[in-house]
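Researcher: Good morning. I'm working through a list of sequences from a screen, and I'd like to move beyond sequence-only analysis. For each chain I'm collecting a predicted structure so we can compare shapes side by side. This is the next one on the list. No need for commentary yet; just the structure.
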Amino acid sequence: MESQLGQIEEMESRPRASLERIYFGEYLVERHLIDEGQLLDALADHWTYGGRFGNALVRRGILTRALVEQYAAEYHALCVVEVAPDSRLS
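Model: Good morning. Structure tokens for this chain:
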């Protein structure tokens, strides 16, 4: 009985995978379609002028409108993104 309780406690203390939202800009960086600098540039534009993040990418000349629409369609087709726990934490 004690062995089972120890196993249960150990399982409950382990980090678990979770579902987290990934933003469009992060999706583009993860796919190596833009780099971190371009992400920050577009975010600054987006925060300054408002509107959609994709419009900021086009305004800054980072991506064409056609590419933004293509990648946005792929991004919105995602159902969920599972984030595995960081194994270094255990």
